Amino acid sequence: MPSLFNRYLFPLGKSYALMAGAAVFALSVPLIAQQVPGRGLYSEVQAERGRQLYQSRCAPCHGASMGGGLAPPLTGTTFAAAWGGKPLSQLASKIRNTMPPDDSGKLTLPQVVDLVAHLLRADRIPAGTADLAYDEKILSTVILPGRRAVVLPPAGNLAQVMRGIMFPSSNMIFNVQTNDPGLPVAKGAVGQGASQSFSWVDWGAGIYKGWEIVDYAAIAVADSAPLMLTPGRRCENGRLVPVNRPDWIRFTQEMAQAGRAAYAAAQTRSQEAVSDSSNQLSDSCLHCHEVYRDKPGGTAADPSNKAARCQP
Ligand code: HEC
Ligand code: HEC
After folding, report:
1. Is 252 in the pocket of ligand 2 (CB under 6 A)?
2. How many angstroms separate the alpha carbon of residue 170 from the centre of ligand 1?
3. Domain count, the chain
4. 181 & 300 share domain
5. What is the pTM of this model?
6. C-alpha to C-alpha distance for 118 and 28, rounded to whole angstroms
7. Residue 123 in contact with residue 75, Cβ under 8 Å?
8. Which residues line ligand 1 (CB under 6 A)?
């Protein structure tokens, strides 16, 4: 059976825990080896102990090959769907506090982590040399990746994604600072044919109401954030988008949060609330652009040095 987790876990700092949409983010995650240099999370010996314990204490309900039976599977797609995006600490405490649910006796903490090691090995997450310890701090920084059945390669470069999605969407939100989306639309002001030149705004504006457009723009910002972490996407200058860099991941998360905040504000239908939240949004764009986009030292004609983009 193929591994149902991605090959690697997702180590995270607290400040950029990408809980939302972790299945998507997990595609581009740094290798576990970067979190604990040179070794994996658990040892083969430990996983073997876990396997033996599993056979006697867990297999009767969860199946000899962990595929489920009386109880849910502990490997495979169903398991990944239930646990992907959650920290390893949650899985460990589920086992620690509730398993086995019968009266066969409580597990010790070393037994719990042995079982976790067995689960990790079953999903082909590579072993290292040292045992996994029951250390809440360590366990909570490792996120179990979900698995996407289909991975589509990027169609465009990063600048195209920015111009196609982030730019129009965030401008619709910034627009709320000076225009009330709740006001009725003046006749002939928008809609097909209102403007002579091609305009993406005019095209849709006759269909959705003002506040709805703000809702959708905020959702577009929040939910398109994972596109910034698609592996294999390049910047205009040909450099790969630095999807594994912690600050890049943090900036991406910041934008996703700003999108969510804008959506929450839009849902109050208060122009003032959205105006306030739009500062958080522009900050999130700015923070990443300061580091990765706005490089001085271009030509006189184009002072922004595009050749230096997409690296810190
Ligand atoms: C007597 C049957 C039984 C035994 C033995 C048992 N479990 Fe369970 N387990 C269940 C049932 C039923 C559930 C689903 C209800 C729940 O989540 O509590 C479950 C749920 C789980 C879950 C959560 C699965 C999910 O998809 O949410 C994990 C992890 C787990 N068990 C691990 C273990 C481990 C490890 C052992 C061995 C130490 C074990 N269980 C022994 C019956 C059992
Ligand atoms: C995680 C980093 C990051 C975040 C967050 C980010 N950007 Fe960008 N942005 C970049 C990089 C890097 C480029 C240059 C892309 C390239 O050269 O391919 C870029 C380019 C752009 C461009 C194209 C500029 C040009 O040269 O034409 C626009 C427009 C843009 N971003 C808008 C936004 C907006 C609006 C937001 C916030 C809603 C945002 N970006 C958030 C990194 C980011």
Report:
1. yes
2. 45
3. 2
4. yes
5. 0.57
6. 24
7. yes
8. 57-58, 60-62, 70-72, 74, 79, 82, 91, 94-95, 98-102, 107, 115
pLDDT tops 50 at residue 127: yes
* Structure token pair of residue 151: 């991975």
Query: Does 287 reside within a domain?
Result: yes
Rounded to 5 degrees, φ, ψ at 266 are -60, -35
CATH number at residue 297: 1.20.120
Phi, psi of 10 (to 5 degrees): -115, 90
Say how many C-beta atoms besides its own lie within 10 A of residue 176's C-beta.
26
Residues 167-192: tens digit of each pLDDT: 999 999 999 999 998 887 766 666 55
